[in-house]
Amino acid sequence: MKIFRPDGAIAQPPHTLTPGRRVLAGARIGVLDNLKPNAGLLMTTVAEPLAERAGTGAPLVLTKNAAQPAPEEVLDQLRREVDLVLTGSAD
Amino acid sequence: MNESEMLDLVDESPEALYALLAEEGWGDGLPVVAPTEERVDAMLSGHRGSPDEILAVLPPRSGACTVRMAAINAVMAGCPPAVFPVVVAAVRGLARPEFNLRGVQATTHSVAIMVAVHGVIVERGGYNAGFGTFGPGNRANATTGRAVRLILLHVAGGRPGDGDASTQGQPAKYTYCFAENAPASPWPTYPHCRGVDSPSAVTVAGMEGPHNIHDMWSTHPGPILEKVASVMTTLGSNNAVMSESEFFIVLSPEHAQQAAAEGWSREDVQLFLYQHARVSRALKERHFAARGLEPPWMRSTDDPDAMLPITGRPEDIRVMVAGGPGKHSCVIPSWGSISRSVTVPVDSW
Description:
The complex is a heterodimer. Chain A is an alpha/beta fold. In chain A, 29% of the residues lie in helices and 16% in strands. Chain A has a domain at 29-86. Chain A has 2 helices and 4 strands; from the N terminus they run E-E-H-E-H-E. A 3-stranded parallel β-sheet of chain A has the order 3-2-4, sandwiched between helices. In chain B, helix 2 (37-44) crosses helix 3 and helix 4 (84-94) crosses helix 7 (139-154). In chain B, a hairpin with a 4-residue loop joins strand 2 (54-58) and strand 3. Chain B folds into 2 domains: 1-207 and 342-349, no CATH class; 209-333, no CATH class. Chain B is an alpha+beta fold. Chain B has helices spanning 14-24, 37-44, 67-77, 84-94, 101-106, 120-124, 139-154, 190-193, 221-232, 238-241, 253-261, 266-276, 281-287, 296-299; strands spanning 6-8, 54-58, 63-66, 112-119, 177-179, 200-207, 211-214, 247-251, 278-280, 307-309, 317-321, 328-333, 342-345. Helix content of chain B is 34%, strand content 17%. The A-B interface holds A 1-14, 35, 65, 67-69 and B 5-9, 11-12, 20, 24, 26, 34-37, 40, 54, 57, 61-66, 68-69, 72-73, 76, 100, 102-103, 107, 150, 154-155, 157, 292, 335-336, 338-339.
């Protein structure tokens, strides 16, 4: 006998990440902090020495709610002002 | 029929189905009904539109939930065709942006999707709005909630540990459906108060499981609702930290009628609970590090003795009536202000 698959097609291909930078020098570093405990601490701890090595000043740290997509204005600012973003960390 | 959507099954025995589900990573752990073409066609028999219509694209898998795909999962859940319009409407509701299904699916919280059924479909679909409306023993209630969960598992990809990061989960993630007992309610139907006036409707909401409220002693609504307020102010729920979140207060017909007998409207109940379900600034300060999840006016309140409402607006305390005889009601806390409940019409087929 035959039965239907219960999952069906995927409507949209998953988003892909931009390829990583090969050279860090000159890259402006950003952090998108989802405000989970320790997420900001962990990511800024990593971002600060990266920014120092890149020679581009302090990292830009923006925040979003962990449970919701980042607001468009936050994403726009990151697109405008940084070249590399650390994000995706939780507790 | 698209042959590529079908799988060969040795036989329809529970063992063969279990083996297939295990191989593919499908199912909720309970036996399912085999979604054969004949059964799926029967589920779709009342649907007037195209079975290929995409009802919603469901995250995190970005699965296309067509009407047929909803029917396949409804068959697996054991739904009678009479309840399928409710399943379809529920999927439409889940896809509304304010519901934030991606967050509901992916969070570490135990949030489950509560499905409340309203209007003429309650009787027509065979739903139980009376004794044990949240519990077992009724096919329509049990399978409607289960069909929604199977869609979330299969089409939306919300597998525990994969698309669903819930730390502990909860039993309501198997099935969570009840029906408003409008004939026993002293107030206008719930969809009416949400501006939905169709003959049938469904509400979907990202909620915890119900917490019982027992009051067989009080002869006035005040003490009953003070107990409701007491449960609403538990510090462990997301409602305590996100101060603009919804609650569902599902009153038993007897508790609701006690309130109505003294002239209380649904809005009076909401206002009473808004006034009584409060926690002090000092207590909030001790438990929650930041005020960022409070509305601006609340954030500016520094007095440690100030009693702050557990939710920012009386109308976010959603009140409806369900259940049978007895003095038990319930409070249903939500996932928080990051998801809003949705009430949508159910199409008549």
